[in-house]
Amino acid sequence: MQDLKKKERELMAKEAELNRREQEIKRREEALAKAGVLIEPKNWPPFFPVIHVDISNDIPVHLQRVQYVSFASLLGLVICLFWNILCVTAAWITGNDPRIWFLAVIYFITGCPGAYFLWYRPLYRAMRFTSGTIYDAFTRKDSAFSYGWFFLFYFFHIAFCIYAAVSPPFFYVGRSLAGIFQSIDEIGRHAGVGIMYFMGFALFVLESLLSIWVFQIVYRFFRGKGSEAQMRPDAASRAPPF
């Protein structure tokens, strides 16, 4: 009987300790939120988390569609630059300057993380600011700064995608990017490589069009022309497209 009472007291003590720790963690999270520090655990990709992506919980419902498409734009850039490496590798193997391969690799290893930190994260934070307690923790000036940072670097992102889709014969005859000019040139030299370059051209065109759409929608919302009613047609009844 005494053993049971002793175990019961131990369990109650452990429960009280757990409750105390939970309250302490909650208090620290609230303090960090008030200080402008967001806790963002890495959760994507699921098999090897390196970034934080939780659009369904972090972003207001009426903005989730735009955020999902901007995330698709980020993934699209990764696909474009990776396919570009494959194209340039094939061109190198068939006799082109090996330096074009190093340029393609540089585009990939700088472009992918650069896109995430320079324009995707600022947009994610700006969209997140508009939701509940997060918005209370930051000023409108901070939100405007995030939008401004996004617009600046997303403009350069769009310019790069258009440049890559064209790939004018300037830098190493433009062969480090799979664009239309190089596709036409390569198809005459080696049909297989030319087809790969044309596929790269198509990817860069799609990425450019998608990015321009995202830029327009976000700018419309930022300028106030896209009210919540305009930004969320049937938002309550429509699930995000991804």
TrEMBL record:
Q: Which coarse location class applies to the principal site listed for this UniProt protein?
A: membrane
TM spans, by residue? 71-94, 100-119, 147-166, 195-222
Task: Tell me where on the tree of life, at the top rank, the source sits.
Answer: Eukaryota
Any one GO BP annotation for this protein: protein transport
One GO cellular component, as annotated = plasma membrane
Q: Carries keyword Transport?
A: yes
Question: What are the protein's UniProt keywords?
Answer: Cell membrane, Cytoplasmic vesicle, Membrane, Transmembrane, Transmembrane helix, Transport
Query: Membrane topology per the record?
Result: Multi-pass membrane protein
Q: Where in the cell is it found?
A: Cell membrane; Cytoplasmic vesicle, Secretory vesicle membrane
Function in brief: Probably involved in membrane trafficking.
Q: Which PANTHER family match?
A: SECRETORY CARRIER-ASSOCIATED MEMBRANE PROTEIN, SECRETORY CARRIER-ASSOCIATED MEMBRANE PROTEIN SCAMP
Q: Return the similarity comment.
A: Belongs to the SCAMP family.
Q: What is this protein called?
A: Secretory carrier-associated membrane protein
Species name: Zea mays
